[in-house]
Design goal:
globular, single chain, 2 strands, two-stranded antiparallel sheet, 8% strand, mainly alpha, 5 helices
């Protein structure tokens, strides 16, 4: 079950890494996890996705709480993702696309 969580987090966090900017731009860092920064633009993009309803089932954010509580929950979730991905990298976890897709589908179903 632990590997399943690592796989799912790696899949979810992989989406964050696909939206980089050029090295010339300065990006605001809102948190750092084991030397890996979480950028403000990543956070804002995830917040927009949540508010647009694209990830309602996956987000895990409280829906009946205040805006500030949702923002804090999102930041906590991003930090948790980084911790899990770092642990997977440190453990040299390597999986195929099919395994990741299966884990993702299983997580969505509950």
């Amino acid at each position: 079950m632990r590997i399943f969580g690592l796989l799912l987090a790696a899949l979810l966090l992989g989406d964050l890494g696909c939206h980089g900017t050029s090295g010339d731009e300065r990006r605001d860092v809102i948190a750092t996890v084991a030397g890996s920064p979480i950028y403000l633009d990543e956070y804002e993009r995830e917040l927009q996705r949540f508010r647009a309803g694209n990830d309602d089932d996956e987000a895990g954010l409280p829906s009946q709480t205040s805006d500030e509580a949702q923002k804090r929950a999102l930041l906590d979730m991003l930090i948790d993702r980084r911790v899990v991905v770092r642990a997977a990298e440190d453990a040299n976890v390597i999986v195929g696309t099919q395994t990741v897709e299966h884990a993702y589908d299983k997580a969505r179903q509950g």
